[in-house]
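Recap from last week: sequence in, structure out.
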Amino acid sequence: MRALSKTLAFALLDLRRTRGFHLMRDLRYWLKSIPSDGVVLDVGANKGDYALEFRRYLRRPVYAFEPVGKTYAQLQAATRHDSGIVCFPLAMGEKPGSAEIAINPSTTLVSSLRPNARWHADAIRETVIVSTVDAFVQEHNVRRIAVLKVDVEGYELEVLTGASQSLHQRNVDFIVLETAFLSEANQHRVTVNHLLSHLGPLGYEPWGVYDCEPVEGDRGGIGFMNVVFGRGRNR
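Predicted structure tokens:
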């Protein structure tokens, strides 16, 4: 029994040294080595689950964006006791303006400015205000973004385009994106290849893969996942 306990203890220590198991812990670990007073931008905050986790683990100010009126009210309610989370009823895109968002009446998790037949056949439509990451950070005097989290159901490249200046100037330390491998089951999501093509020339590369979800049905394989991009370690 004593030998087993010792083996388990060493296994747990090895696990703590290994990155790739817990998104928030890894971000906290990586950010310790970067002299940054950056904030967190949670684009597509939904009801605030990630915003609250960012506050718990990173202890940084969080700006949370949710454009859908009903969901935004839920976000405000969930985060009202934490003054470090500031909520905005905004979508993010490639240019400021307004747009029509498709809302699945069965779930808040797949609202999208890029609707598809599978998830939005019976969608409710709502006109929302659109800003850009670059416009927001300039307006609110945000000097650095420690984490840019984007979960916008297929609209990720538009959000990244609207953050071009911040990315080119390397004012973003890490980017967390929900993505998928190229497959029929994920036509409403941006693929890893798209993200690599967009972020690679800007000096960002994958640092970790998290929260892998299987493809629906019995076909097997990874349906979607979260990928962390960071600035190239040799750049």
